[in-house]
């Protein structure tokens, strides 16, 4: 598995090795030992899958109290995936990065996006439909669920909405009520680890 750095500390693009022949291909998408050897630590407890049509924008989501790290993979279609650093102690606090993630094809590498705890996450669907699969390190926690507005002016995320042909993104009623970044209840500052 190849681990690629991104503009945000600790967010990684992962490219599992693909073994191909005339019959098709095989890839070991996740292996706990390989993941740990790459310096990524996770104990996954829940798998989620979504299906969305073009223009659907989900996010920006995060959880308080029971934060989730996520390992995101596109099974079909094409999305633009965004991570926002909410860790107040991080030099990247308030910064975002976006990634074009597509389903595996003969022309595209198999890619997964690793988003650790302390980040908000969202994506917009750029293809006619898309299926997104992601593993999480914590269970869904309704009481801790939070959302930041996708179009928050302080974050100024450059969503590729021109690909939607002038149609505004479709967001859920819950996401439409997300908070502005400066008003959002963010994760507490992590206490320093004593050695």
What is the strand and helix layout of this fold?
Layout: E1 2-5, E2 12-15, E3 18-21, E4 24-27, H1 32-37, E5 46-53, E6 57-63, E7 70-76, E8 78-85, E9 96-102, E10 112-115, E11 119-125, E12 129-136, E13 145-147, H2 173-176
In a few lines, what is going on in this structure?
This protein has about 200 residues and is mainly beta. The chain has helices at about 30-35, 175, and strands at about 1-5, 10-15, 20, 25, 45-55, 55-65, 70-75, 80-85, 95-100, 110-115, 120-125, 130-135, 145.
The best one-word shape is globular
**Uncertain ranges:** none
Compute the separation of the termini in Å.
Answer: 31 Å
CATH fold call: Jelly Rolls
Family: Belongs to the dTDP-4-dehydrorhamnose 3,5-epimerase family.
GO molecular function, one term: dTDP-4-dehydrorhamnose 3,5-epimerase activity
Function: Catalyzes the epimerization of the C3' and C5'positions of dTDP-6-deoxy-D-xylo-4-hexulose, forming dTDP-6-deoxy-L-lyxo-4-hexulose.
EC number: 5.1.3.13
């Amino acid at each position: 598995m190849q681990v690629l750095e991104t503009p945000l500390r600790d967010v990684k693009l992962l490219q599992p090795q693909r073994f191909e022949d005339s019959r098709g291909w095989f890839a070991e998408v996740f292996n706990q030992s390989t993941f740990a050897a790459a310096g990524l630590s996770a104990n996954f407890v829940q798998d989620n899958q979504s299906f969305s049509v073009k223009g659907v924008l989900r996010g920006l989501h995060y959880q308080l109290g029971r934060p989730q790290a996520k390992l995101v993979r596109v099974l079909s279609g094409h999305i633009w995936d965004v991570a926002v650093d909410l860790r107040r102690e991080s030099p990247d606090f308030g910064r975002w990065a976006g990634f074009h993630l597509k389903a595996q094809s003969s022309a595209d590498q198999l890619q997964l996006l690793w988003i650790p705890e302390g980040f908000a996450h969202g994506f917009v669907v750029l293809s006619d439909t898309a299926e997104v699969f992601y593993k999480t390190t914590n269970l869904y926690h309704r009481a801790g669920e939070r959302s930041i507005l996708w179009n928050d002016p302080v974050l100024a995320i450059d969503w590729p909405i021109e690909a939607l042909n002038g149609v505004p993104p479709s967001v859920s009623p819950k996401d439409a009520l997300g908070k502005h970044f400066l008003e959002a209840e963010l994760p507490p500052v992590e206490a320093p680890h004593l050695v």
